[in-house]
Write a structure and sequence with these properties.
The chain is an alpha+beta fold. The longest helix has 13 residues. The radius of gyration is 19 Å and the shape is globular.
Length: 190
């Protein structure tokens, strides 16, 4: 059976060339935290998540530090329960990467993101951003929903795909205490 180009790109990314990826990550480590790119590295993943090679679409690479987020130790008194060295985040690293990209590019909205690699120190994500003011986006029937004011700042309100996964909204059940929100249930769901 004949497959298309995107199928073979996807198969190649299942077992990437470690030497090439290692060289890329060395260069990424030396670069800035949020870097604007000419085109996505994983074209198959970007296209599946809504990327189009047209005006109004921007792809950025975000570098994010791995590992547990340490909590400060108390200064005085015997506080045995508070001396914890690790803080468990309620937000996934991918969601944090999306937010950092949105903070850097304030006039753009986050569409989606995907992981492109990790090493001993960092995670690397590519985030797809859209400029809602561009006429090419306003006239695109599949993408003009993002120009609606209700979608402004969607990454900060947990409305992207990575954020919904982190909030536990991809599964539906009566027993899950995540709907309509974590705050409504007193954060018992997560």
């Amino acid at each position: 059976m004949a497959h298309g180009m995107y199928h073979y790109i996807q198969q190649a990314w299942k077992h990437p060339d470690t030497k090439t990826l290692r060289e890329r990550m060395i260069a990424w480590r030396a670069s800035e935290t949020v870097v604007k790119l000419d085109k996505p590295l994983r074209l198959d993943r970007a296209r599946a998540l809504g990327y189009k090679d047209k005006k109004g679409f921007v792809v950025v690479r975000v570098r994010l530090k791995r590992g547990g987020h340490k909590r400060h130790r108390p200064n005085k008194g015997r506080r045995s329960k508070r001396i914890t060295s690790k803080k468990t985040l309620k937000m996934s690293y991918q969601w944090i990467a999306e937010q950092r990209a949105a903070v850097k590019y304030k006039n753009l909205e986050v569409l989606n993101s995907y992981k492109i690699g990790k090493d001993g120190i960092y995670y690397f994500f590519e985030v797809i951003l859209i400029n809602p003011q561009m006429p090419e986006i306003k006239n695109d029937k599949t993408m003009n929903w993002i120009t609606n004011p209700a979608n402004k700042g969607r990454v900060f309100r947990g409305l992207t795909s990575a954020a919904k996964k982190s909030r536990g909204l991809l599964q539906k059940s009566v027993k899950l205490k995540v709907r309509p929100s974590g705050r409504a249930w007193g954060h018992k769901g997560k």
